[in-house]
Design goal:
single chain; 371 residues; alpha+beta; Trna Endonuclease, Chain: A, domain 1; 6-stranded mixed sheet; two-stranded antiparallel ribbon
Length: 371
């Protein structure tokens, strides 16, 4: 496969990478055999080893092409190498791109790249896999984020590589199994919810429903995850409804139903979620009221345009045409008719006050009783 000294991808990138990391007291051991790894790195702090180690795959170039908005650099890698980096290695590995001309060094954690992992699992016929290396991941400025990514990759690889019998043995008589079980469920549910978010973005609404319903209906799921699932459910049902022409009244029903569930789920806390749920429910109630009244008002305007206020009043009140001997108060009567349509009266049942100066209160028109 050749030696590291002959690999053109290192170019001046190795020197650039060493300057970024060795300046912090870390050690970099260059791998001479080309097995897809260029450096083994050990992290030191105050001259003492932290026992944190990881590997680096380095790609270098004199001319580096970036995305149009400059937020990432695309890095194609052979599928076999990508499988090795993402799935076969049991230790953390970083993919690093050195822009030699601009003296900038960027990194990404391929083992945490959900899009690439999904591509490797579903697109077996592809010969290459493309990673996106964010330009915000700049060395040495983003070393703290790099260490966080190494820690996440380490814990993930350790958990996935431990056989079930060995895992059970490791917790036997050492930790609270109930607590461990709950923590594992919380993390498992969080993964499902994250997957549901990805499915939502891809438009797979039915699959989203299946995942979130399991969590919402599970009494052993954490309050936080059930709350998250309800937020996802609200977003899903409202989006699906609006895309299919749902009227506002039905959107309001969805909000009221789901936010009432939020209130129930968070009734014992935590306090911030309980408070959020109460406010969200009140907001949904206000939305439902305003939506209904707006619809009534728009219907009123439509009927006025079609029939005129006098006919509208007779139609809305249930009084046959001709039973009122005055039309001078038609504007006020229309207001009464609107209040009646909403199921409310703002004045006593009876003849509304007439604004016709020639009527002198002798109108025979009567509004119907609420019954």
């Amino acid at each position: 496969m050749g030696t590291g000294a002959n690999r053109p991808r290192l170019l001046g990138g190795g020197t650039q990478l060493r300057a970024a990391l060795e300046g912090r007291g870390w050690t970099l051991e260059e791998k001479r055999k080309d097995y897809g790894i260029d450096f083994d790195v050990e992290v030191f702090r105050d001259g003492k080893s932290t026992s944190i180690t990881f590997k680096i795959r380095l790609k270098s170039s004199v001319s580096t092409a970036y995305s149009k908005d400059g937020t990432y650099r695309s890095e194609p890698i052979k599928r076999s190498n990508a499988l090795y980096l993402c799935k076969e290695l049991r230790v953390p590995v970083l993919l690093v791109r050195a822009d030699v001309r601009n003296k900038k060094t960027f990194w990404t954690a391929p083992q945490l790249d959900s899009g690439t992992l999904r591509s490797l699992a579903t697109k077996s016929s592809t010969r290459t896999v493309t990673f996106r290396i964010p330009t915000k991941n700049l060395l040495p400025e983003n070393v703290p984020q790099l260490l966080d990514a190494v820690g996440q990759a380490l814990s993930t690889r350790s958990l996935l590589s431990t056989p079930v019998p060995d895992f059970l043995t490791s917790v036997e008589n050492r930790v609270d199994k109930g607590q461990v079980g709950q923590e594992l469920q919380n993390k498992s549910d969080a993964i499902r919810l994250s997957q549901a978010e990805e499915l939502f973005e891809s438009g797979s609404f039915n699959e989203v429903r299946i995942k979130i319903r399991r969590i919402i209906s599970d009494p052993e799921a954490s309050v936080e995850n059930r709350f998250w699932a309800l937020l996802t459910a609200e977003r899903l049902e409202v989006t699906d409804g609006l895309q299919n022409g749902m009227v506002e009244e039905n959107v309001a029903r969805i909000l009221l139903t789901i936010r009432a569930q939020m209130k129930q789920v968070t009734r014992k806390g935590p306090h911030h979620l309980k408070f959020f749920s109460l406010i969200a429910l009140k907001a949904a109630e206000l939305y439902a009221l305003t939506s209904r009244d707006l619809a009534m008002y728009l219907n009123l305007l439509e009927l006025e345009d079609q029939q005129g206020r006098g006919c509208l009043l007779e139609s809305a009140s249930g009084v046959p045409p001709g039973t009122s001997d005055c039309r001078g108060g038609s504007q006020v009567w229309a207001m009464y008719a609107f209040s009646w349509v909403r199921g409310k009266f703002t004045f006593p049942i009876g003849s509304p006050p007439c604004v016709n100066a020639h009527c002198r209160g002798h109108c025979t028109f009567r509004l119907p009783s609420q019954g």
